[in-house]
Amino acid sequence: MGVRRFSRILPVTKPPVHDPRRTLTLRDVSEASGVSEMTVSRVLRNRGDVSVATRERVLEAARSLGYVPNKIAGALASQRVNLVGVVIPSLSNMVFPEVLAGISETLEDTGLQPVVGVTNYSPEREETVIYEMLSWRPSGMIVAGLEHTEAARAMLAQAGIPIVEIMDIDGEAVDSAVGISHRRAGRQMAEAIIASGYRRIAFLGTMMPHDHRARKRLQGFEEALAKAGLTLADQEFYSGGSALLKGREMTEAVLKRSPDIDFLYYSNDMIGAGGLLYCLAQGIDVPGKIGLAGFNGVELLDGLPRRLATMDACRLEIGRRAAEIIAGKHAGTIGGEVIELFPTLQAGDTIRRA
Amino acid sequence: MGVRRFSRILPVTKPPVHDPRRTLTLRDVSEASGVSEMTVSRVLRNRGDVSVATRERVLEAARSLGYVPNKIAGALASQRVNLVGVVIPSLSNMVFPEVLAGISETLEDTGLQPVVGVTNYSPEREETVIYEMLSWRPSGMIVAGLEHTEAARAMLAQAGIPIVEIMDIDGEAVDSAVGISHRRAGRQMAEAIIASGYRRIAFLGTMMPHDHRARKRLQGFEEALAKAGLTLADQEFYSGGSALLKGREMTEAVLKRSPDIDFLYYSNDMIGAGGLLYCLAQGIDVPGKIGLAGFNGVELLDGLPRRLATMDACRLEIGRRAAEIIAGKHAGTIGGEVIELFPTLQAGDTIRRA
DNA sequence: GTGAAAGCGCTAACAC
DNA sequence: GTGTTAGCGCTTTCAC
């Protein structure tokens, strides 16, 4: 962004607010209310029987002092931490916020709180994030993907808490897993495309060595092509920048280079949307002359002039199921669960009816 | 999403992995290495002088055991927590992930870690999130917006740590603040629009009673209109659903209802983009017959057939500055800073040149 | 360069 | 129903 910015520091109009004074403790509430620390603790946690009178006195004291319990001390003493670590590669891909939404929603009435860590698709960064999270002794961990460093896998396996790897099931899980088979998804899309009569098929995707799920989709896609005696007619990769714009640019590049292409398979909906806008602007007959498909089923597609073919990645459901496993809602099981979800192919308006 | 899904639970192929055994402690490392707990602690924190030999022995023991330090105990003992609470209204509005990126980037080499909480634009939820976060005794808090419940303000003020309210500076900050004046932003956009000769101006926005910043922009916008002797010719509000789609629908509704409208001001870029796509599809002369403008400067706009006029909200910069304040990089100040950033108006291709 | 003792602020377990 | 005691696993401080 080559945008110039100006800033000024306004004069301080009031005294500094955060004098690092000692924060309040149970003892303070105890003294203010004339009730023992232990009973104060009970009131504040709604544990055990406390007379209404004492309870009121304690709550009043706590409220008027502005007491906020120290969970660090509480967690150390009780050996319980109401935190669930969630490790994802990115927040700018809307897929992950949606998974998070599913997790939060399900965790809401369990007293558990998700804590998010972002890895930017870097295995080393992931290892660090996992280490940092485990050092807070969370009640469970939800980690995107099945591919981790040796050390990360070892730490997770050692942690003694439920671990759920999400999004993908094509591989070996540390403990539990909830996701779809991306390889199968790629295969299915290829089969649908071939069945609709397309033959000169190109792939356009991200150049991210660590996006294993995109890689597996492409792999499955090529497997199905091979079974039909086909190979990819062209490929184009990108990294960084506005996905929508990259989609336009890559599409233009591919169509200029290989004018006889009749199908464009994108590794995600955002670049697919860019490609769709480009084709429409060029007056290309979609899906007559050229068909298009993406992956993810993102909400954005609803607003486009034509509905891009895609596959729903079951994001919300994945989040929910993973959270349920952590919350121990699957009675009778103690880890080791693998839940496969099955995405639906939405043909939209960019694949010819077979 | 009316998508059917199927799932099955695959048979467990391996023994459950997370038997909740006791996790390792410093003592375990101490015993395994034959070095005192204290020295082990020093090695693991790189504190004080330790002989190379002992250091090696300790690290080897820790590594082979797979020891992960317990930060809960560490934090309690040292009274230091390397966490920074970040409270934002939403993750699905790309604005906030970008602010987060700025925060993470700046915090990276300070040893501080951001922990994110999401409020869904609910003041009560915000109060809860703030309470929960403060109970972990973070080193600082970054909170979106200046409007909070009484209790939330009180807690923040009491916490004894640096508090930075971000995004907005039109109001009273608890401690420090970094943001732009949304009222001024609305005013500026209105002035630009009027200067370009538009007169029949409509507003299209979210119906979110707690989106104070959108409200302030509209307010500033109307002020500037009034100064020019104008009032809004029409308005339309929405909530929920795909913003891009809503943008199309709202635009259609407004243009049908008020055919003489010559400008559409959107409260965010996403609905603005939907409106733009609608106008282009209808063959409306943009910006000749109708002008359009949004707010935020989102990356997505780069991929659209035409560049929507917008104002950059300085998201990355806001994140960076806020993090710098928390990290204590503004030497000589102890809170109470207010940093105003000045967004740039990007006229794009959807406002007539004056 | 290394170790021993005390205690961070809470809660589990038990007494009364 | 309420209080007392003993830690939780580290780090601080001070001694050696």
Overview of the molecule:
Two copies of one chain form a homodimer. Chain A is of the alpha/beta class. The first copy, chain A, folds into three domains: 44 residues, 434 Repressor (Amino-terminal Domain); 124 residues, Response regulator (Rossmann fold), CATH 3.40.50; 131 residues, Rossmann fold, CATH 3.40.50.2300. Chain A is built from twelve helices and 13 strands. A six-stranded parallel sheet of chain A has the order 3-2-4-5-6-12. A four-stranded parallel sheet of chain A has the order 8-7-9-10, covered by helices on one side. In chain A, helix 1 packs across helix 2, helix 8 packs parallel to helix 9 and helix 10 packs across helix 11. The two termini of chain A are 45 Å apart. At the A-B interface, strand 1, helix 4, helix 5, strand 3 and helix 6 of A face strand 1, helix 4, helix 5, strand 3 and helix 6 of B. Strand 12 of chain A pairs antiparallel with strand 1 of chain B, so a sheet runs across the interface. The structure holds a DNA duplex (16 and 16 nucleotides).
Tally of separate domains of chain A:
3
Shape of chain A: elongated
| Series of H and E elements of chain A | EHHHHEHEHEHEEHEHEHEHEEHEE
Any low-confidence stretches of chain A, pLDDT <50, length ≥5? 1-17
Tell me the strand percentage band of chain A: 15-25%
Strand order of the largest sheet of chain A: 3-2-4-5-6-12
Helix content of chain A: 40-55%
Q: How many H/I helices of chain A?
A: 12
Largest interface: A-B, 96 and 97 residues
